[in-house]
Amino acid sequence: MKRHPLRHSSGILLLLILLQWSCTLVWDTIWTGGEKKLESAHPESSSSGRRLIIFALDGTTPDQLMQAIRSGNAPNLAGLLGKERRQGLFDHAYAAPRAWSILPSSTIAAWSALFTGTPPAANGVPGDEWFERETATFRAPVPVSALDTADVSKVVSDDLIGKALKTPTLYEMIKKRTYVSLLSVHRGATLYTTVAPASFADFLSYLIKGTVKGIDPEKSFAAALDLSATQKLIEAIDTHGVPDLQVVYYPGVDIFTHASEDPLARQVRYLQFVTDKRVGEVLDAYQKKNALNGTYVIVVADHGQIPTLNDDHYELNTDDEKSPFAVLKKSGFRVRKPLLSLANLDADYQAVFAYQGFMAYVYLADRSTCEKEHEPCDWPRPPRFKEDVLPALNAFYQANRNGELVPELKGTIDLIFSREPAPTTQNARPFQVFDGQRLVPIGEYLRRNPRPDLSDLERRMQWLAAGPYGHRAGDILLLAKACLRVPIEQRYYFASISHYTWHGSACEQDSRIPFILAQAGGNGERMRAVMRKFAGAVPNQLSMAPLVRELLK
Ligand SMILES: [Zn+2]
Question: How many A from CA of 303 to the centre of ligand 1?
Answer without folding.
Answer: 6
